[in-house]
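Quick illustration, no need to memorize.
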Amino acid sequence: MSQPEISARTFPSHMLKEIYEQPEAVRQTIAQHIDPVTRMVRPDRFPWTAAEVAALRRVTIVASGASRHAGLCGKLMIEDLAGIPVEVEHASEYGYRKPTNGKGSLVIAITQSGETADTTAAQRTAKENGMKTLSISNVVDSTISHEADANFFTRAGREVAIPATKSFTTQLTALYMLALYLAAQKDTLSAAEVMARVQALAALPDLIERSLDRFNAEAETISADFYEDQTFVFLGRGVHYPIALEGALKLKEISYVHAEGYPTGEFRHGPTALITETLPVVAIVTYDRRDPESVLRYEKSMALIEDIRQISKRQILVASEGDEVVRSMGVATFTLPHIEELLLPMMEIVPLQFLAYHIALRNGFNVDRPRNLVKSVTVD
C-alpha cells in the first residue's frame, strides 16, 4: 500500500495508521542519509575527522523506553559492523553517577521527541565529562539536537499515538545506517560492502509494505485466542532479544497485561518456573540462512521451544518463511522473508505491534491514549 493510498484510507486509530506508515517512514529515513553522489551513508551533522573516528574506542547509548530497546539493537549493529564496544544505559540512571568511559568515547542519545528529560540530562552529563555526543531524534529543532555535537535525524513524521511504532522502526534504521557509517570510517567494511548493505536496507520498506495487510489479518485472528490472558512471556536471542522487549512493552502499554521479555538462552535460568499449560509464549525464531551463527542461534531457540511445548502448547512464533519445523508445530505464526540478520528486527516488530493492537482492541481499550502515559516524559 503506497503512501498516497494510506493517506486516503480511513483508520480507526492513529496507532493503526502509524503502523501502516512505517514503510514510508523507513524509506524517508534512508533517503535522508544517503549521499546522492557517493551512495554512502552520511549523518546530518558529524564534525569529526576520520582520524577522530578511527580513535573511537567505546560507544555508550543512553535512552529510555522503546528508544532504549532500539539502542540495544544498535549496540549489536555497531559492534558487529564497526567493531566498537558499545554499552547501553538507562538514561534515567546515567546521570546519577560519574561516567567512566574516558577518552575516545562517544555517547549516543536516542529520543523520539528530543525533549525526554532523562535523556537530555544524560547527554549533558556526558558533555560535562568531556565526551563527544550524537543525538538520534525525530525533531530537528529539539533540545537534544541543539545541544549534541552531532545529529542523525529520523524521518518518521508526526507520531500522534502514545505507543511508539514508526518512531521505533526509524530509530532502528538510523542506528543501522550509523553503524555502516562508522564501519566505513574505521575501514571494517569496504565501500562495496557498505553499498551492498545499503541496497539491502533500501529493499526493506517494500518488504514490510507487502506484509502489512497479512500481518494485520493474522494478528486479528491470533488475538481471539489470547486477548483474555493476563501474563505473557516474550523470547528473543541476540539482536532479536530487544524486539522481544519491545513487543512486551507494546502489550503492557496498550493492553495493561503483565508481559516480560527475556533472552531466549536465559529463560532456563529461573524463568522456566513460570511455565504452565496455559502460559502464552511469544518467541522470535527467525534466522539468516547465510549466517552460520544465526542458524545456530535459531537451532538453540527451537530446542527451548520444544521443551516448553512439553508443558504448554500456547505459543505465538515469529519465524522465517518456509520453516517446516515451525509449520509442523501447528501454532500461531507470523512469517518473514529471508533477509540479513541485522535487518530482521525492523520487520519483526511489525506483527508484534499488530498483535498488541488487536489484543487491546478486543478488550475495548484506547490504543492511542493508554492510561497514565504521555508521549514525551519531560520530567525526571
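Strands lie at 58-63, 86-90, 105-111, 132-137, 150-151, 231-236, 258-263, 281-284, 315-320, 332-336.
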